[in-house]
Amino acid sequence: MKKHLLSGLVVLSVLAGCSSSKDVVPDIPPSELYSDAQSSLQSGNWTNAIKKLEALDSRYPFGAYSEQVQLDLIYAYYKNDELALSSATIDRFMRLNPTNERLDWVLYMRGLTHMAQDQNFMHSVFNIDRSDRDPEPVKKAFADFKKLLQRYPDSQYAEDAKLRLIALKNRLANYDLATADFYLRREAWIAAIKRCQEIQKTYPNTEAARQSLPIQLEAYKQLGMQEAIDRTKMLIQLNQS
């Protein structure tokens, strides 16, 4: 019995050794390893690309490919939905290469990474509106794209950044609208009014700003503030025309 158990353990250890050896990146010249990583990137094999790029990054941190390897890792991590690693690599790259000519792309990727952190696959599949979710990643993405436009107005990523800023502004406005509605349902009339006014001031050209007016009107009615009621009714009429 012991012999069979021992032989079984030996077989398992051999199999484990074979399995782990497959995961080890071969010790080949950096140029060849980089070429293999590029092939994996081009074919969309993100996991394999990451494995080889990480090997390059750890074995040759100051090599000829070091900066490009980090740039490739940013993209591969993002595509492989390893957003925390993508974000960490971005921060590292920006810290070590403050004058790199690709910083506009790096900033653009940081915005995309923060945007992706606001997504939820199941919510997308079932078309569930989650405007009430914490918008912190959205705020960070908004800041990234805004900074991109300020620092690199002629960047090839500027036009896309402008479009994303519009979408992000709507996302933030919808979050504030959901918060105002929550306050209204909790009968926190003053808090609801303040949040509605904040939406109208910060995001004046959004659908959320228009939708905040009926919430504001109801809160004023509950407080019996006739002058404010009349003023809000006028704003609603103006926004309907």
Automatic annotation (TrEMBL):
<comment type="subunit">
    <text>Part of the Bam complex.</text>
</comment>
<dbReference type="InterPro" id="IPR017689">
    <property type="entry name" value="BamD"/>
</dbReference>
<dbReference type="Pfam" id="PF13525">
    <property type="entry name" value="YfiO"/>
</dbReference>
<feature type="domain" description="Outer membrane lipoprotein BamD-like">
    <location>
        <begin position="27"/>
        <end position="233"/>
    </location>
</feature>
<dbReference type="InterPro" id="IPR039565">
    <property type="entry name" value="BamD-like"/>
</dbReference>
<keyword id="KW-0472">Membrane</keyword>
<dbReference type="GO" id="GO:0051205">
    <property type="term" value="P:protein insertion into membrane"/>
</dbReference>
<comment type="similarity">
    <text>Belongs to the BamD family.</text>
</comment>
<dbReference type="InterPro" id="IPR011990">
    <property type="entry name" value="TPR-like_helical_dom_sf"/>
</dbReference>
<dbReference type="GO" id="GO:0043165">
    <property type="term" value="P:Gram-negative-bacterium-type cell outer membrane assembly"/>
</dbReference>
<comment type="function">
    <text>Part of the outer membrane protein assembly complex, which is involved in assembly and insertion of beta-barrel proteins into the outer membrane.</text>
</comment>
<keyword id="KW-0732">Signal</keyword>
<keyword id="KW-0998">Cell outer membrane</keyword>
<protein>
    <recommendedName>
        <fullName>Outer membrane protein assembly factor BamD</fullName>
    </recommendedName>
</protein>
<dbReference type="GO" id="GO:1990063">
    <property type="term" value="C:Bam protein complex"/>
</dbReference>
<keyword id="KW-0449">Lipoprotein</keyword>
<keyword id="KW-0564">Palmitate</keyword>
